[in-house]
Design a protein that fits this description.
It is built from 3 helices and no strands. The chain is an all-alpha fold. The mean pLDDT is 89.
Length: 65
């Protein structure tokens, strides 16, 4: 798979799928950024903190009535 295939695959995703992938990438992005600043943090800790944050509306599951 080359970069063009990746672009086409991304464009085929729904906005909800794109947002979900972005949301799921936050912990690893934070860990990489902090490591670059020479202040390493545990990905487990970042995931725990992210778990306390309310996700964007687009990612919330509809409540059963």
């Amino acid at each position: 798979m080359n970069w063009m295939d990746n672009i086409l695959k991304w464009r085929e995703l729904t906005p909800e799928q794109k947002q979900q992938l972005r949301w799921e990438s936050i912990p690893s992005d934070v860990v990489q950024s902090m490591a670059f600043e020479r202040e390493p943090v545990s990905e487990t800790m970042v995931r725990a903190i992210l778990g306390q944050i309310e996700p964007p509306d687009i990612l919330k599951q509809p409540k059963a009535s």
